[in-house]
Design brief:
325 residues, 11 helices, globular, eight-stranded mixed β-sheet, 46% helix, alpha/beta
Length: 325
Amino acid sequence: MLSRKFVYLVFAVLLAYYWMNYIKRGPIYKTDKRLDGKTVLITGGNVGVGKATAIEFAKLGAKVLIASRNVIKSQKAKDEIVKESGNSNIRVMKLDLGDFSSIKSFAEKFNKEEEHLHYLINNAGVTHLRGLTDYGYNRIMAINHFGPFLLTHLLMDKMIRQSKTSPVRIINLASAAYMFGSFNFEMMHNDSDSWYKDFIIYGQSKLANIYFTSELNKTLEGIDITTYAVHPGGIKSELGFNGPIGWSSHLIHLVISTFFLREPIYGAQTTLYCALDDNVTQLSGNYFGETTMQALKDFAKDEAVGQKLWQETIKVTKDYLPKEV
Protein backbone atom coordinates (compact mmCIF):
# COMPACT_ATOMS: atom_id res chain seq x y z
CA MET A 1 0.00 0.00 0.00
CA LEU A 2 1.26 3.47 -0.88
CA SER A 3 2.34 5.58 2.06
CA ARG A 4 0.58 8.85 2.82
CA LYS A 5 3.84 10.77 2.34
CA PHE A 6 4.25 9.32 -1.15
CA VAL A 7 0.70 10.29 -2.11
CA TYR A 8 1.28 13.83 -0.84
CA LEU A 9 4.53 14.02 -2.79
CA VAL A 10 2.88 12.91 -6.02
CA PHE A 11 0.06 15.41 -5.47
CA ALA A 12 2.56 18.22 -4.84
CA VAL A 13 4.51 17.34 -8.00
CA LEU A 14 1.35 17.29 -10.12
CA LEU A 15 0.19 20.59 -8.62
CA ALA A 16 3.57 22.19 -9.29
CA TYR A 17 3.52 20.89 -12.87
CA TYR A 18 0.04 22.31 -13.45
CA TRP A 19 0.95 25.63 -11.82
CA MET A 20 4.09 26.05 -13.91
CA ASN A 21 2.67 24.94 -17.26
CA TYR A 22 -0.91 26.19 -17.18
CA ILE A 23 -0.87 29.19 -14.82
CA LYS A 24 2.62 30.70 -15.02
CA ARG A 25 3.15 29.77 -18.67
CA GLY A 26 1.03 29.90 -21.79
CA PRO A 27 1.14 28.93 -25.45
CA ILE A 28 3.91 30.32 -27.65
CA TYR A 29 3.02 31.24 -31.23
CA LYS A 30 5.77 30.27 -33.67
CA THR A 31 6.11 31.52 -37.22
CA ASP A 32 8.62 31.50 -40.06
CA LYS A 33 7.25 34.76 -41.47
CA ARG A 34 9.34 37.86 -41.92
CA LEU A 35 7.93 41.38 -41.69
CA ASP A 36 10.66 43.30 -43.46
CA GLY A 37 9.08 46.35 -45.11
CA LYS A 38 6.01 46.19 -42.83
CA THR A 39 5.07 48.91 -40.35
CA VAL A 40 3.57 48.19 -36.93
CA LEU A 41 2.09 50.85 -34.65
CA ILE A 42 1.75 49.83 -30.99
CA THR A 43 0.16 52.13 -28.42
CA GLY A 44 1.68 51.72 -24.97
CA GLY A 45 4.57 49.79 -26.47
CA ASN A 46 7.06 50.96 -23.84
CA VAL A 47 6.17 48.58 -21.00
CA GLY A 48 4.65 45.19 -20.19
CA VAL A 49 2.74 43.34 -22.88
CA GLY A 50 3.13 46.22 -25.34
CA LYS A 51 6.89 46.21 -25.02
CA ALA A 52 7.07 42.42 -25.31
CA THR A 53 4.92 42.65 -28.44
CA ALA A 54 7.15 45.35 -29.89
CA ILE A 55 10.22 43.17 -29.33
CA GLU A 56 8.64 40.22 -31.13
CA PHE A 57 7.59 42.31 -34.14
CA ALA A 58 11.06 43.88 -34.24
CA LYS A 59 12.66 40.43 -34.26
CA LEU A 60 10.65 39.64 -37.39
CA GLY A 61 12.11 42.69 -39.16
CA ALA A 62 9.18 45.09 -38.97
CA LYS A 63 9.45 48.83 -38.50
CA VAL A 64 7.92 49.38 -35.06
CA LEU A 65 6.46 52.66 -33.82
CA ILE A 66 5.88 53.03 -30.09
CA ALA A 67 3.17 55.55 -29.30
CA SER A 68 3.01 56.58 -25.65
CA ARG A 69 2.44 59.54 -23.35
CA ASN A 70 5.81 59.04 -21.61
CA VAL A 71 8.43 59.73 -24.25
CA ILE A 72 11.39 59.31 -21.86
CA LYS A 73 10.23 55.83 -20.87
CA SER A 74 9.60 55.05 -24.54
CA GLN A 75 13.14 56.09 -25.52
CA LYS A 76 14.53 53.76 -22.88
CA ALA A 77 12.24 50.97 -24.11
CA LYS A 78 13.40 51.65 -27.67
CA ASP A 79 17.03 51.10 -26.67
CA GLU A 80 16.10 47.82 -25.00
CA ILE A 81 14.05 46.67 -28.00
CA VAL A 82 16.90 47.47 -30.39
CA LYS A 83 19.37 45.60 -28.19
CA GLU A 84 17.19 42.52 -27.81
CA SER A 85 15.91 42.31 -31.40
CA GLY A 86 18.91 43.59 -33.35
CA ASN A 87 16.48 45.81 -35.28
CA SER A 88 17.21 49.55 -35.12
CA ASN A 89 14.15 50.53 -37.16
CA ILE A 90 12.20 51.61 -34.07
CA ARG A 91 10.52 55.00 -33.68
CA VAL A 92 9.05 56.72 -30.64
CA MET A 93 6.09 59.10 -30.95
CA LYS A 94 4.17 61.01 -28.29
CA LEU A 95 0.49 60.09 -27.85
CA ASP A 96 -1.90 60.72 -24.97
CA LEU A 97 -5.03 58.62 -25.49
CA GLY A 98 -6.83 60.61 -22.82
CA ASP A 99 -6.52 63.82 -24.85
CA PHE A 100 -8.41 64.06 -28.16
CA SER A 101 -6.21 66.94 -29.31
CA SER A 102 -3.11 64.82 -28.72
CA ILE A 103 -4.64 61.96 -30.70
CA LYS A 104 -5.46 64.24 -33.62
CA SER A 105 -1.97 65.80 -33.60
CA PHE A 106 -0.39 62.35 -33.46
CA ALA A 107 -2.49 61.05 -36.36
CA GLU A 108 -1.71 64.10 -38.51
CA LYS A 109 2.01 63.65 -37.88
CA PHE A 110 1.88 59.90 -38.49
CA ASN A 111 -0.14 60.25 -41.70
CA LYS A 112 2.28 62.88 -42.99
CA GLU A 113 5.57 61.21 -42.06
CA GLU A 114 4.87 57.47 -42.33
CA GLU A 115 4.29 55.88 -45.71
CA HIS A 116 2.82 52.58 -44.48
CA LEU A 117 0.66 51.07 -41.74
CA HIS A 118 0.16 47.31 -41.89
CA TYR A 119 -0.65 46.58 -38.25
CA LEU A 120 -2.38 48.80 -35.71
CA ILE A 121 -2.12 47.37 -32.19
CA ASN A 122 -4.39 49.28 -29.77
CA ASN A 123 -2.57 47.96 -26.74
CA ALA A 124 -2.43 50.83 -24.22
CA GLY A 125 -4.79 50.68 -21.27
CA VAL A 126 -5.30 51.77 -17.65
CA THR A 127 -7.15 50.47 -14.61
CA HIS A 128 -6.82 52.56 -11.45
CA LEU A 129 -7.36 56.09 -12.68
CA ARG A 130 -9.82 58.37 -10.92
CA GLY A 131 -11.77 61.38 -12.15
CA LEU A 132 -13.88 62.41 -15.13
CA THR A 133 -12.87 63.98 -18.43
CA ASP A 134 -13.87 67.53 -19.29
CA TYR A 135 -16.57 66.02 -21.52
CA GLY A 136 -18.08 64.11 -18.58
CA TYR A 137 -16.87 60.52 -18.96
CA ASN A 138 -14.83 58.23 -16.74
CA ARG A 139 -11.11 58.56 -17.52
CA ILE A 140 -10.60 54.79 -17.67
CA MET A 141 -13.30 54.54 -20.34
CA ALA A 142 -11.84 57.55 -22.14
CA ILE A 143 -8.33 56.10 -22.45
CA ASN A 144 -9.33 52.48 -23.00
CA HIS A 145 -12.21 53.01 -25.43
CA PHE A 146 -12.79 56.53 -26.76
CA GLY A 147 -9.08 57.11 -27.42
CA PRO A 148 -8.48 53.95 -29.49
CA PHE A 149 -11.76 54.50 -31.36
CA LEU A 150 -10.70 57.99 -32.39
CA LEU A 151 -7.12 56.99 -33.22
CA THR A 152 -8.28 54.10 -35.40
CA HIS A 153 -10.61 56.34 -37.41
CA LEU A 154 -8.02 59.08 -37.85
CA LEU A 155 -5.65 56.48 -39.32
CA MET A 156 -8.33 54.69 -41.35
CA ASP A 157 -7.71 56.46 -44.69
CA LYS A 158 -4.07 55.42 -44.58
CA MET A 159 -5.00 51.84 -43.70
CA ILE A 160 -7.57 51.65 -46.49
CA ARG A 161 -5.00 52.86 -49.01
CA GLN A 162 -2.51 50.37 -47.57
CA SER A 163 -5.02 47.52 -47.90
CA LYS A 164 -5.12 47.96 -51.68
CA THR A 165 -1.57 46.65 -51.94
CA SER A 166 -1.14 44.70 -48.68
CA PRO A 167 -3.57 43.36 -46.04
CA VAL A 168 -4.01 45.36 -42.84
CA ARG A 169 -4.90 44.02 -39.41
CA ILE A 170 -6.24 45.96 -36.41
CA ILE A 171 -5.85 44.34 -32.99
CA ASN A 172 -7.61 45.72 -29.93
CA LEU A 173 -6.38 44.56 -26.53
CA ALA A 174 -9.47 43.53 -24.59
CA SER A 175 -9.62 41.37 -21.46
CA ALA A 176 -11.53 38.55 -19.81
CA ALA A 177 -12.53 41.28 -17.35
CA TYR A 178 -15.34 42.02 -19.82
CA MET A 179 -17.17 39.19 -18.02
CA PHE A 180 -17.76 41.40 -14.98
CA GLY A 181 -21.17 42.29 -16.42
CA SER A 182 -23.29 43.59 -19.28
CA PHE A 183 -22.68 47.10 -20.54
CA ASN A 184 -24.04 49.93 -18.40
CA PHE A 185 -24.17 53.22 -20.29
CA GLU A 186 -24.67 55.22 -17.09
CA MET A 187 -21.47 53.82 -15.60
CA MET A 188 -19.44 55.58 -18.29
CA HIS A 189 -20.25 58.85 -16.51
CA ASN A 190 -19.40 57.59 -13.01
CA ASP A 191 -16.20 58.20 -11.12
CA SER A 192 -14.78 55.47 -8.89
CA ASP A 193 -14.04 55.62 -5.18
CA SER A 194 -12.56 52.16 -4.66
CA TRP A 195 -10.16 49.62 -6.14
CA TYR A 196 -13.12 47.29 -6.74
CA LYS A 197 -15.08 49.90 -8.73
CA ASP A 198 -11.97 50.66 -10.76
CA PHE A 199 -11.93 47.06 -11.93
CA ILE A 200 -15.65 47.08 -12.73
CA ILE A 201 -15.22 50.18 -14.90
CA TYR A 202 -12.10 48.63 -16.43
CA GLY A 203 -14.19 45.55 -17.31
CA GLN A 204 -16.78 47.82 -18.93
CA SER A 205 -14.06 49.47 -21.04
CA LYS A 206 -12.78 46.07 -22.15
CA LEU A 207 -16.33 45.05 -23.10
CA ALA A 208 -16.44 48.28 -25.12
CA ASN A 209 -13.26 47.14 -26.92
CA ILE A 210 -15.02 43.91 -27.90
CA TYR A 211 -18.10 45.75 -29.20
CA PHE A 212 -15.83 48.16 -31.07
CA THR A 213 -13.99 45.28 -32.75
CA SER A 214 -17.20 43.62 -33.86
CA GLU A 215 -18.85 46.81 -35.13
CA LEU A 216 -15.66 47.98 -36.85
CA ASN A 217 -15.45 44.67 -38.69
CA LYS A 218 -18.93 45.31 -40.17
CA THR A 219 -17.88 48.70 -41.53
CA LEU A 220 -14.85 47.16 -43.26
CA GLU A 221 -16.75 44.63 -45.36
CA GLY A 222 -15.18 44.40 -48.80
CA ILE A 223 -11.94 46.03 -47.61
CA ASP A 224 -8.81 43.98 -46.93
CA ILE A 225 -8.66 45.07 -43.27
CA THR A 226 -9.46 42.62 -40.48
CA THR A 227 -10.05 43.22 -36.79
CA TYR A 228 -9.52 41.19 -33.61
CA ALA A 229 -10.21 41.64 -29.90
CA VAL A 230 -7.49 39.97 -27.85
CA HIS A 231 -7.26 38.87 -24.22
CA PRO A 232 -3.52 38.67 -23.43
CA GLY A 233 -4.08 36.65 -20.25
CA GLY A 234 -3.15 37.43 -16.67
CA ILE A 235 0.18 39.17 -17.16
CA LYS A 236 2.67 40.94 -14.89
CA SER A 237 2.64 44.62 -15.85
CA GLU A 238 2.23 48.16 -14.58
CA LEU A 239 -1.45 48.06 -15.49
CA GLY A 240 -2.57 47.97 -11.87
CA PHE A 241 -0.52 51.02 -10.91
CA ASN A 242 -1.94 53.86 -12.99
CA GLY A 243 -3.13 55.80 -9.97
CA PRO A 244 -2.96 55.98 -6.19
CA ILE A 245 -3.84 52.77 -4.32
CA GLY A 246 -3.24 51.76 -0.70
CA TRP A 247 -0.55 49.50 0.74
CA SER A 248 -3.01 46.62 1.19
CA SER A 249 -3.92 46.75 -2.52
CA HIS A 250 -0.22 46.78 -3.40
CA LEU A 251 0.29 43.71 -1.22
CA ILE A 252 -2.62 41.88 -2.85
CA HIS A 253 -1.29 42.78 -6.29
CA LEU A 254 2.19 41.56 -5.33
CA VAL A 255 0.88 38.17 -4.17
CA ILE A 256 -1.29 37.72 -7.26
CA SER A 257 1.53 38.84 -9.54
CA THR A 258 4.04 36.46 -7.97
CA PHE A 259 1.94 33.34 -7.96
CA PHE A 260 -0.66 33.72 -10.69
CA LEU A 261 0.46 36.18 -13.38
CA ARG A 262 2.63 35.34 -16.37
CA GLU A 263 5.63 37.14 -17.80
CA PRO A 264 4.83 39.74 -20.53
CA ILE A 265 6.16 37.54 -23.34
CA TYR A 266 3.15 35.25 -22.90
CA GLY A 267 0.81 38.22 -23.19
CA ALA A 268 2.14 38.99 -26.67
CA GLN A 269 1.38 35.58 -28.15
CA THR A 270 -2.30 35.95 -29.04
CA THR A 271 -1.61 39.33 -30.62
CA LEU A 272 1.11 37.72 -32.74
CA TYR A 273 -1.29 34.93 -33.69
CA CYS A 274 -3.98 37.38 -34.80
CA ALA A 275 -1.42 39.49 -36.66
CA LEU A 276 0.39 36.70 -38.48
CA ASP A 277 -1.73 33.57 -38.82
CA ASP A 278 -2.86 32.85 -42.39
CA ASN A 279 -6.27 31.43 -41.46
CA VAL A 280 -7.35 33.87 -38.75
CA THR A 281 -8.55 36.43 -41.31
CA GLN A 282 -11.67 34.28 -41.77
CA LEU A 283 -12.49 34.99 -38.10
CA SER A 284 -12.29 38.78 -38.27
CA GLY A 285 -14.34 40.63 -35.69
CA ASN A 286 -14.07 37.95 -33.03
CA TYR A 287 -12.49 37.59 -29.58
CA PHE A 288 -9.28 35.62 -28.99
CA GLY A 289 -7.23 34.28 -26.10
CA GLU A 290 -4.58 31.60 -25.63
CA THR A 291 -3.86 31.84 -29.40
CA THR A 292 -7.35 30.68 -30.36
CA MET A 293 -10.82 32.14 -30.87
CA GLN A 294 -12.87 32.20 -27.67
CA ALA A 295 -16.63 32.06 -27.17
CA LEU A 296 -18.11 35.27 -25.75
CA LYS A 297 -20.78 35.69 -23.11
CA ASP A 298 -24.17 36.35 -24.71
CA PHE A 299 -24.31 39.96 -23.52
CA ALA A 300 -21.01 40.67 -25.32
CA LYS A 301 -22.66 39.66 -28.62
CA ASP A 302 -25.65 41.99 -28.30
CA GLU A 303 -25.62 43.85 -31.62
CA ALA A 304 -28.10 46.48 -30.41
CA VAL A 305 -25.78 47.43 -27.55
CA GLY A 306 -22.77 47.44 -29.86
CA GLN A 307 -24.52 49.76 -32.32
CA LYS A 308 -25.72 52.07 -29.53
CA LEU A 309 -22.19 52.29 -28.10
CA TRP A 310 -20.81 53.02 -31.57
CA GLN A 311 -23.23 55.93 -32.01
CA GLU A 312 -22.55 57.20 -28.48
CA THR A 313 -18.81 57.12 -29.17
CA ILE A 314 -19.26 59.04 -32.40
CA LYS A 315 -21.16 61.75 -30.47
CA VAL A 316 -18.32 62.01 -27.94
CA THR A 317 -15.53 62.19 -30.54
CA LYS A 318 -17.37 63.90 -33.43
CA ASP A 319 -15.44 67.17 -33.25
CA TYR A 320 -12.22 65.28 -34.01
CA LEU A 321 -13.45 62.51 -36.31
CA PRO A 322 -13.13 62.59 -40.09
CA LYS A 323 -16.34 63.93 -41.66
CA GLU A 324 -17.19 60.65 -43.41
CA VAL A 325 -17.52 58.62 -40.18
